[in-house]
User: Fold these one by one.
Assistant:
Number 1:
Amino acid sequence: MKKLMDDHRKMFGEFEVIDFVDESEIQGLRSQIDVDAPLEVHWSWEYGSEVEELRRLYEKGKVNQWNAELDLDWEMPVSKDEFVLNPQASMLAQACALLGKDEATQKAAAFDELAYTLSQLLHGEQAALQICGQLTNVCEKMDEKWYASSQVIDEARHVEAISKFLQRKMGTIYPVGATLKVLLDELLAAETMKKKTLGMQTLFEGTAVGIMDLMRSESRNDFFTDMIRRIEQDESRHAAFGVLMMRRVVKEAEKEEMEELEDWAFSILEALNANQQLDMLRLLGPKYDIDPENITRMFVALPNHAELNSLAFMHTVIPNLQRLGLITERTESDWRRVGLMVDQRGGQRPSSVEFHLA
Ligand SMILES: [Fe+2]
Ligand SMILES: [Fe+2]
């Protein structure tokens, strides 16, 4: 199976990480702002509804529109001196505590980390905005075009909300991490409608829902909770679009194509996961006397690493891939080996897109 970013791999104990250390290389990746993205544009002359479930999702999307400027109460406070999320949700805050730093430093570190994480989500939102614009073109059916175009405005609103939050409430937008930039470029340049849908709609939207759900459940700030809740609601619709589209794709796919999609899905999420926050730690760790490698080595060696690590993935994206038949016996042990997939305790299934569709 092809590994992405093969030349940036190293072993931390038994875990293979992706690590970018050369600052000029990182800058080079960021300064590549043009991406060659092949597009096949299709007309459709069928103006009636052909895919009823997509039409329903489109209707739902119209009813659930909101205005990032007017519907959020921007007067509500967000302070650097308070934990916005519970401290246990911050790797930097925990590392600071381990090093015996005072609470003010732990709070500052958690605030920085949140700004970094939200900045990465922001760059991901911009990628979603652009890929959805592509999807409006490459989809063949009118219902698909309508839905994809409605998602374009959702994604613009997410870029708006998160960038305003970072600028007004946090004071910083951090640049895109190197690993994420490589992956987003891979999705933007994906050649077929199937890969664009699988990559952005299923893998990234599904992972985003998981991350946002974790953030919301750890939030201590009312403004932040409200903003994330609204975005998450849109994202679960987007992940649902991914599943509805991919369901029809997998129904028609031959074995060989299924295996190709399964391998590609694994290679994308494996690479996303293989960075293990190293890009963030290399940027922010030194400010708090934190050694990025030590913290990461410690984290990947934890006996419950897979359980912690898989939380965001087990929420939506893994169950959806299983339902689509894109995690099979052939690859299941790989997903488990890298800590993306674990057994659910007590037979409890994570909530998923099926739930949001109800
Ligand atoms: Fe979004
Ligand atoms: Fe989205």
Note: The chain has one domain: 57-357.
Number 2:
Amino acid sequence: MRFMVHGGVRRSWMAVLLTALLLAGCAARHPGDPIKPGFNVYSKEQDIELGRQAAAEVRKQVAVVQNPWLQNYISAIGKKLAAQPEAEGYPYSFTLINEPSINAFALPGGPIFVNSGLIAAADNEAQVAGVLAHEIAHVALRHGTNQASKASLIQLPAVLAGMAIGQDSVADQIAQIGLGLGVNSVIMKYSRDAENQADALGTRILAEAGYNPIEMANFFEKLQEQGGSRPPQFLSSHPDPGNRVTKVQAEIQALPASVTRKFDTSVGNFAEAKRLVAQLPKPPSKEQTLARSQAPTEGPSGAMRTLRARTFQVARPAGWQAFGDQSSSTVTVAPRQGLVETSTGASLGYGVVMSYYQPRTASNLGEATGELVNQLAGLDRSIQSRGGQRRVTVSGNPGLVTTLYGQSPYGGAERLMLLTVPRPEGLFYMVFVAPDRRFEQLSAPFEQMVDSLEFRR
Ligand SMILES: [Zn+2]
């Protein structure tokens, strides 16, 4: 009974805390008033660690512009802004992405990504700088982890326990509370309140770096005019807090005269940047970049485990999963990233399939294998047998290894190693699939599996 009363008290205490914290950011603020980061359960160091991990994920999932001049251009603007005291000295980085939509996003602790479409849409360098200053403000005000902290309030005790034990990385913890690290979830939508703050602090950073902050207001106005049925992406990831342009103008009015007197009106290299952006190659589709990001880069290392099927047994990498009914004679063994989700369904990009084929007319191993290859090519039209053949002995049986090529679901060419062994049950086959480009690094498990294969009676 006492316990229940105690529990009730704790719950209401939590409710009060929650309400207080959520209201704290909503207090009215006047233009020019200082802005400080809100409630946060993470440390600044954790912001930086989290952002570094997320940035590595993002780089795999986007098409980074391969032009060093353009990357230097965007970095130079960013560094000028990041040097201002309001940027709070985070380890900022600025990366240009080959993506025509108008957008930019910041990760906790400093990594900032800018779409090439932003340069294409801007009228001058100060407008590009305006968006970068807005992103820097999100980092300095720690809006990403502030939002995660609010979301985690209900699970706060669990998150803190995880931190104490130290088993999970911050990224894992964020994932646990439902804010994943994929490129889609990283480009999270901030609250209107956070947008207001980023506009205000961004205005200040922009002015201090010598850019006329009125261009920030001009650019937002331009984006809003382009609205209609498909507003620029920037406005969906950075929603208009309401009267955006008017508020930025009021913030400019409140700037100290010492700042507003020293605007740099030189054109810079903006025209050259626009010219180079217009010449960028067509960016790959979302599906292509996503599939490529999932492609394995190295084979499994370490332990093997015995897989027992009805008629054979074989060693498989311990970290791989066996799919299908293991009591039958058709088994697929693959790592988790080996199954690729495509528009036409799941496809095996890296792994092994083992089964039996019943030849129709073939009278020897070579002919039976030829029939099977035709069968496989019928299922996957990209498959062709350009590769060679070699004879092997498997568990005392004569076998044939045939090399085939096809189209990898990760993009690019795929290599298939087909082992065939005649058995009383039919033609046993084991086909190993991997992207051709990395086949040598990835084929070790195939060799190990072939060596370990034993037929059961
Ligand atoms: Zn924003």
Note: The longest strand covers residues 397-407.
